[in-house]
Amino acid sequence: MLYYIALPAAWLLWNIGFRIKVIGLENLRRRGSRGFIIAPTHVSAIDPVFVVIARFWGRRMMVFAKKELFEINPFVTWFIRQCGAVVVRGTRDEVDTINEAVELCRKGGGLLIYPEGTREKDGKILPPKSGVFLVAAQAGVDIVPCRVLYDTPDGRMKLFCRVKVVFGPAMPASRFAMEGRRDVKKLREGKQALVDAWEAIGAEHAFPARTGGQ
């Protein structure tokens, strides 16, 4: 219950601090009762809050998060815990957590995971890691590419900047099915397809570049 109380409060707070525009939400709502994975690029440590707020509706997702996300400030730490955030990398229970995520997606739940594994530098998309595709293959669920875009000169989050959260068309689970657990060819194809989807979102929805000090 606390999640459904915290979410509207966070939505209001974030929309006061940022002018948030959500695009492509229908790409999530078309999922119906099927499980899904949201796979955004990663620019700011606070990106997950924007994605959760942009989705807004539906049952609580599981959120794979790095330890640093729990060290921003007490409110963000409290909120992301309410949103289902779990630390994965560097924990002894990592395998159990991944298995839990697979089972959750199989049962119609959602997973938010950042395939790049770390925040981007110099505005360049990083090659995705294999984990997101292995979970998608085991769970048999679609991947929804996503980007959080900031209207700032360097593309990074600043207080009171405009923000777009864009959900792209779902990438069907069938394209991630593997012959074995480490199907290198399928993994390579999946990674390239996800990067292409991220780049397409950026090309269509990025804020205009600022020039002349504007």
Automatic annotation (TrEMBL):
Q: Name one Pfam family in it.
A: Acyltransferase
Query: What is one Gene Ontology biological process annotated in the Swiss-Prot or TrEMBL record?
Result: phosphatidic acid biosynthetic process
Q: Does the keyword Acyltransferase apply?
A: yes
Q: Which UniProt keywords apply?
A: Acyltransferase, Membrane, Transferase, Transmembrane, Transmembrane helix
Report the coiled-coil segments.
Answer: none
| Residue intervals of the Phospholipid/glycerol acyltransferase domain | 36-151
Residues annotated as transmembrane: 35-57
* Protein's UniProt keywords contain NADP: no
Recorded hits in SMART domains, A to Z, give:
PlsC
Q: Which SUPFAM superfamilies does the entry mention?
A: Glycerol-3-phosphate (1)-acyltransferase
Q: Give GO terms: molecular function aspect only.
A: 1-acylglycerol-3-phosphate O-acyltransferase activity
Question: Which domain of life does the UniProt lineage start with?
Answer: Bacteria
Known InterPro entries for this protein?
Plipid/glycerol_acylTrfase
**Protein's name in the database:** 1-acyl-sn-glycerol-3-phosphate acyltransferase
Naturally occurring in which organism (per UniProt): Candidatus Faecalibacterium intestinavium
